[in-house]
């Protein structure tokens, strides 16, 4: 009894010592083994179109990882137990008792279960048979190894249910893109860690990503979560980003462009639909494209948004801007005729020529026939400064700043460096370079009474402040001139849209390669506005190196026609070329213009 009391006394003293004097130290030791501070990953914000339809969303997934040392050691221990049990059974063959048989069967079952777990992981993760063990052995000096990233929840749960030693899962989010390749270049994509690396995902990564939080949790001996104790740092979810794109028009634009590029066996193609009154980009498509959902077949060379990053000489699509610059400089009037005889102009060794001698032509005819000689003569009537200032006002030589990463400023040298040849060549679109976005943006004032609205890929809550870059009379006059291009006999006849009046311009620019222009390598394009009486949209199409049709009127204009027709219908823009609308428009056209009148030049 005395001995028992002494033992009880010692235990009580020991308990009091631990409870009073070592409580804090013991609590710290317990926390080291059980308490963990884990990261709470922020939910990435959605990217939507202008109507709130999703274009990029995050779905929950699980990434599986393991400690190679723990997993390999467990396998080795189970294999050793199995071999030992088998050796004992062989040594006592015929004399094996029930207990030894049970031990042997248990060891064999455990080892077989682990091996089957390895094979199950290989099947679920589409790995070659036996490759998992090889990878674990290669990383045996590490304590962390990813078995698979961003796996579907059901697949990850099946593997975790195997309860393999050292294997655990981490909840993450995977980005999903409903429009796939249709809007791949605009929306972009994230990398495996959820950081934006292309397109809007990259340009607005900080806003979309949010901020990860931290929480303190209790885990059991196997590392499984028991309970959350306290939030150390609040998680801040990412904000949504609403684009100006209309996913209906975007899908239509990509489908039509892709079909045409493959029909022409072309190198590439780009298309933009711009709301001229707000500056919002309603669609932007590039071919070839990429599917950001299929990471196994992604090719980095396809990531480039050609409509924004690539620059080329605009060719004849610049001629309406040349006429607008001349009207603004008051060196010609809208009724002037330009003498293009004898069909060419010589500048020393350099010759500008037309397909034939058109003789004296009106400005609408100059555009309809796409006369290089006529455009050169108009450009030479202006002084270099006026021509340069007008092109600068409509965005040439500067970044559009529409919200994309990698936007090019193109190339427009200062007028002080221009000679006579430069002034003439700039008149019909050579000697300077632009992106398709810049060129489309430059046409927008024609559709907005001379107002140059900032271009944007983001949905606007309220209109931005635009800049008056040309007189409203000049804009309307050039639109009427461009209508001749789309009429019968014009170079853009295939750009007609049933029920609507269309104004636009074709372009074919030879590429400058290795110090010379190549007549077998060219960029074809068509840019136009509609409805011409009350312009709303600017649509531009660019086809790079078509192998069949070699002009903008044949290669690009048909795509323009189909996309413009459907876009106007989707936006409920009323027709302006029906019998009941023509009389009213004739009245509008009969109103005199305030621009200078002119004679034959």
TrEMBL record:
Concerning its family, UniProt says: Belongs to the transpeptidase family. FtsI subfamily.
Indicate whether Methyltransferase appears among the record's keywords: no
This chain's source organism reads Thiothrix nivea (strain ATCC 35100 / DSM 5205 / JP2)
This protein's name: Peptidoglycan D,D-transpeptidase FtsI
Question: Which SUPFAM superfamilies does this one have?
Answer: beta-lactamase/transpeptidase-like, Penicillin binding protein dimerisation domain
Q: What does this protein do?
A: Catalyzes cross-linking of the peptidoglycan cell wall at the division septum.
Asked whether the UniProt record includes Glycosyltransferase among its keywords, one would answer: yes
E.C. number: 3.4.16.4
* Gene that this sequence comes from: ftsI
